[in-house]
Amino acid sequence: MESSKNSLIPSFLYSSSSSPRSVLLDQVLNSNSNAAFQSPNLEKNSPSPTMASRKNFLIASPTEPGKGIEMYSRDFYAACTVGGILSCGLTHMAVTPLDLVKCNMQIDPAKYKSISSGFGILLKEQGVRGFFRGWVPTLLGYSAQGACKFGFYEFFKKYYSDLAGPEFAAKYKTLIYLAGSASAEVIADVALCPFEAVKVRVQTQPGFARGMSDGFPKFVKSEGYGGLYKGLAPLWGRQIPYTMMKFASFETIVEMIYKYAIPNPKHECSKGLQLGVSFAGGYVAGVFCAIVSHPADNLVSFLNNAKGATVGDAVKKIGMVGLFTRGLPLRIVMIGTLTGAQWGLYDAFKVFVGLPTTGGVTPAPAAKA
Q1: Long-range pairs for 63-68: beta carbons < 8 A, 24 or more residues apart
Q2: For position 13, what pLDDT does the model report?
Q3: Between residues 129 and 199, which one has the greater pLDDT?
Q4: How far is CA 187 from CA 10, 102, 136, 148, 191, in A?
Q5: What is the topology classification, in CATH, of domain 68-229?
Q6: Which of 170-179, 277-286, 321-330 has the least mean pLDDT?
Q7: Domain with CATH 1.50.40.10 in the chain
Q8: Model pTM?
């Protein structure tokens, strides 16, 4: 059973205790040991400071006793990247029917007047299969976005924390969450944008294409490769505030849950309870995300559907009130569920490979000399 379970995870996600990197880590730890700890009063069989320090570097894997993933190593970021692919790609694909109705409500509100009527019209005109039109560009696009979003968020969060130093990182942790998530999303949207353009065109123009395989060349033939990135600026306008709210509010909400709603410290809670907290925190964060990013979402849908349209055309056609309200209730339900499921899947994968769940512990400031 153990060997079959290990085969599901790429071997590079684990660092062997006998690997060159682990040997180098041992040498570094041994060289940094303070001579003061080598007192003759210490018993030979007592744990050494080196071994105590090593526990802070390696996290035990549930499938490989004695081995683990080194925090903030290449394997750590690789694991976070794989978790991001699974969490974003699978969840966005699962809610394709909701996304399809939302996009059509945004493009043609006279025809798609409500959620129920929207589903009814699509079922009548396109059948059950029509609800999953555009699922391939959705899966590919949001898998690429999730890989960059979660992988680079973990990288930038660590990078900005190191720049600030332990004391300021603890004091201004929310700013670090915001900066790290914004930086990651800038990169993630470059990966998502071409797939999003094809997805919207396939979903809102019946007969344009069946999916990604024929929709991509048709789109390029019609608008050129530059047309694939026509919606990048509105996509940044939608996704960057969304992601900043998604990560910063999630980290804050989870920390508050562990502080005020759960009597035991996080490390004493079961993994099941921790994953439940991740889902709950993600769902609440998703509601805030939907409200903040909804106007830009309307712009993205309009621009990718109308050839040669501008932001001014979209505002004139939809109206300022419509930008904030059209399709919002459905998007709150969709994004709340989506975000909760994403954090649940992401942290479940981290637990599976032996990493701790995200958030819930306030960074401690550095001790003053």
Answers
A1: 63/2, 63/5, 63/6, 63/9, 63/354, 64/6, 64/14, 66/17, 67/14, 67/15, 67/16, 67/17, 68/14, 68/15, 68/354
A2: 40
A3: 199
A4: 25, 25, 21, 7, 7
A5: Mitochondrial carrier fold (1.50.40)
A6: 321-330
A7: 68-229
A8: 0.73
